[in-house]
Amino acid sequence: MKKNKYPIVISAWKKTESQKVRILLDEYEGELMIIARVWFRRDGAWKPSGHGLNLPADKHLSKLISGLKKARRINNVGAF
User: What is 8-74's CATH number?
Assistant: First the structure.
């Protein structure tokens, strides 16, 4: 049996003491998804919240990256 290589956590950072943000790649019904979601700690384990977004990577990843680059330039935070 082939082991599934997903999900792959691309990035994660602390939002608050009890929350973090995770960016990951996962597979859903055979389609690669890019997921950005807030996770929260409950009973000692991290759980995904309803706050986030799941998009098919092949259709939306390049547009998401482009939009984030624009947001970064507008906020004068620096370039990717």
Answer: 2.30.31.10
Strand partners, 53: 36
Angle at 21 between CA 76 and CA 14, to 5 degrees: 85
Q: Are strands 31-42 and 19-28 parallel, antiparallel or unpaired?
A: antiparallel
Cβ–Cβ under 8 Å, residues 42 and 67: no
Domain boundaries, the chain: 8-74
9 Ramachandran zone, left/alpha/beta (phi>0; psi -120 to 50): beta
Nearest residue to 57 (alpha-carbon basis) of 2, 3, 7: 7
Percent pLDDT > 90 in the chain is 79
DSSP labels, 24-45: EEEEETTEEEEEEEEEEEETTE
Rounded average pLDDT over 1-12 = 83
